[in-house]
Amino acid sequence: MKKRIGLFALIFLPWMLQAQTDTTSAVAADTLWKKSVGFGINFNQASFTENWFGGGVNSLAFSAFFNTKMNYKKDKWSWDNRVNFLLGTVNNFGDGYRKSQDRLFIDTKVGHEISEAWGAYFSTTFLTQFAPGYRYVTLPSGEEDALKISDFMAPGFLTFSLGFEYIPDDNFTLRLSPFSPRFTFVTDSDLYLNTEGNTNYGVELGETVRQEWLAAQLVAEWSKDFTDNINLYSRYMMFANYETLNFQEVDHRLDVVFNAQLTSFINLSLSGIMVYDYDQVNEIQLSQTLGLGILLQAEGAVVE
């Protein structure tokens, strides 16, 4: 619990600092905070009578997300912060509730402008999940057993990056980090017993942390507003450990999200994730979700 409190303190640090700045009158005129906050709820329900010839399973699905950005710019210095929370469950009656989506992502970056399109930066990125994840297997008796294969901070990834960024316009950003140490946490040292191949997310069996000091990372982000109500966002990440550098053991992750604001409160979202992580499984992992629900969003800029 103390770890989670400390984590949330890190999340809200930029907001606390901004609140403190609001009370200060002696601030340069070119200081700028830009912020946006979005909160959404998706809900899906289906039910059938016993004599429904079309077939079907009674189900109930729910998901919620919270996304926020707060960026600060003064002279050649910038401070960009992003937080993404996502949690969803689905209940196919007879199977009980099962997790369908789960993500906790935090990214904070300090940058210094070198030229019109290039800058130097230092960033900290954190990725994990909120709730336990399970692998379901059928026992010889015919009953189903739930084997826990993940949890909060199991795994958890903390990455520090120092390098250069290329920002040619408002839509595209490229981060190049030749020095990007990463720490992989697996706080439950018994999870490997339930994973396929008895893998432990790259952490040695019996240990809870893996340290990769000599590593490089590339991150590319592209976001495009096609209209005031339609947006396409993509983020690609590549991570390579110098000590085990070969094509097969380079990590890749691609996130793509399509958002359409249908009305003032109704939002349609389609997202897909592709992951290749040799420490988990030597295959490409794919995830896709489609959501229709309520979106509450606020955007604005504060000039001090």
Structure description:
The protein has 304 residues and is mainly beta. The protein has a single domain (2-303), classed as Outer membrane phospholipase (ompla), Chain C. The protein is 7% helix and 61% strand. The protein is built from one helix and 16 strands. It has one helix at 2-22, and strands spanning 32-46, 59-74, 77-92, 96-113, 118-128, 133-138, 144-150, 156-166, 172-179, 182-185, 209-212, 215-225, 230-241, 251-261, 266-277, 281-303. The chain has a twelve-stranded antiparallel barrel with strand order 1-2-3-4-5-8-9-12-13-14-15-16. Strands 6-7 form a two-stranded antiparallel sheet. It is flat and about 70 Å long. The protein starts with a helix and ends with a strand.
Fold blueprint:
Layout lengths: L1 H21 L9 E15 L12 E16 L2 E16 L3 E18 L4 E11 L4 E6 L5 E7 L5 E11 L5 E8 L2 E4 L23 E4 L2 E11 L4 E12 L9 E11 L4 E12 L3 E23 L1
Antiparallel strand pairs: 1-2, 1-16, 2-3, 3-4, 4-5, 5-8, 6-7, 8-9, 8-10, 9-12, 10-11, 12-13, 13-14, 14-15, 15-16
